[in-house]
Every structure is written in structure tokens, then in C-alpha cells.
């Protein structure tokens, strides 16, 4: 019997800090919480906190990615009950839109941090599972002949994810906009380029 490897002490500490920080963000609002509060509430010295997370946005990203990992497996089970790629991705995007609408306060600092990571060349350090999920769905669609197969699924998944981020940023700039509609437009645009000729 193969068992999953236990997380390292470093990973357990990161998860603990992120969980505590997430609870603080939910209770007090993201902007109101300081790194010092996170350290005190997590029961770690400031040096330990900064050894794991250089900035508060990094803690936020870790917390969000942990929540995504927790929620993604059941979501993917629901998604895979759909028969086509064009009907699967909207389920993922609708779930994402609901989450962002409930947690709008996190969107701007999260996006700023993620793009900063890209410009620093450290984007893989706090990678979410969304691109992995998109890759699996695109690969299945390529196998079914729904999506062009002259590009690797990983590249198409990144294109889809950048369209997703673009829709998210547009929504942040317009409080009256519908994120579901913005995601739907981004996905339609993706499909026009990814469909088999």
C-alpha cells in the first residue's frame, strides 16, 4: 500500500500561518490585518513569518491556493459529468465567479502579487492548481477532437488563464460589471482560437 508523503515541517508551518491569516482576513478585512498580527495570532516570531512569506500578499496567495486545492476536487467531479469541453469550463468559471464576488477584497492584492511574481521570474513559487485543471480539461478535449491539438495543452491552459485574469481585472475596474459575463466572454474568445478548424 502506497501512502502519501507527510508534509514537511516547513510546509506545515506555512499552512498554519496561511490558515490563521485567512481567518484574520475574514474577520477583520484584508487591508486591516498586519503581518505583526498574523505572527502573533499564528504563534510565530516575526523572523519565522518573514522567512516563509516576504509580504502579506504572499500569505494571501498561499491561503487562497489552499482553499482552491480543497474545493477543486469536488468541483472537477461535477465538471467531468458534463459531456463537452464547451460545457465543462463554464462550470469552473461560474464557481470561480461566485467565489470572487464573495471575496472581492482579495482580488486586487492577489492579482498584483501574481503579476509581480511573473515579472520577478518566481511565478511557480505560489502556483495555483487552476492551470493544471485547465490543462487536464484541454487535454481531454484534444483527445475528443473538440480543441485543436497543434498546441500543447499546457500552453492553451496558460492562454485561457491569462484571459481569465484579464476578465477579472476588467471586473475590478467596473463595480457594476458581471464577472460571470466577463468570464463567459473570455471563454468564448478562447474557444474561437482553440477550436479545431
Automatic annotation (TrEMBL):
Pfam families: TetR_N
Sequence ranges assigned to domain HTH tetR-type in this UniProt record: 11-71
Gene3D superfamilies to which the protein is assigned, alphabetical: Tetracycline Repressor, domain 2
DNA-binding residues: 34-53
Keyword tags: DNA-binding
This protein's record includes keyword Ligase: no
Protein name, entry field: TetR/AcrR family transcriptional regulator
Amino acid at each position: 500500500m502506497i501512502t502519501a508523503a507527510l508534509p514537511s515541517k516547513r510546509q506545515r508551518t506555512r499552512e498554519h500561518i496561511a490558515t490563521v491569516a485567512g481567518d484574520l482576513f475574514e474577520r477583520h478585512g484584508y487591508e486591516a490585518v498586519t503581518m505583526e498580527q498574523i505572527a502573533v495570532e499564528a504563534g510565530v516570531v516575526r523572523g519565522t513569518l518573514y522567512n516563509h512569506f516576504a509580504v502579506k500578499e504572499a500569505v494571501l496567495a498561499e491561503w487562497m491556493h489552499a482553499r482552491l486545492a480543497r474545493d477543486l476536487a469536488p468541483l472537477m467531479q461535477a465538471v467531468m459529468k458534463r459531456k463537452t469541453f464547451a460545457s465543462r469550463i463554464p462550470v469552473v468559471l461560474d464557481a470561480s465567479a461566485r467565489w470572487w464576488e464573495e471575496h472581492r477584497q482579495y482580488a486586487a492584492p492577489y492579482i498584483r502579487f501574481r503579476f509581480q511574481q511573473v515579472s520577478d521570474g518566481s511565478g511557480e513559487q505560489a502556483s495555483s492548481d487552476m492551470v493544471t485543471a485547465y490543462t487536464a480539461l484541454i487535454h481531454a478535449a484534444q483527445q475528443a477532437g473538440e480543441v485543436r491539438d497543434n498546441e500543447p495543452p499546457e500552453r492553451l491552459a496558460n492562454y485561457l488563464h491569462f484571459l481569465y485574469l484579464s476578465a477579472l481585472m476588467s471586473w475590478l475596474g467596473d463595480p457594476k460589471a458581471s464577472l460571470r459575463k466577463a468570464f463567459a466572454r473570455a471563454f468564448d474568445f478562447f474557444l474561437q482560437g482553440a477550436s479545431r478548424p
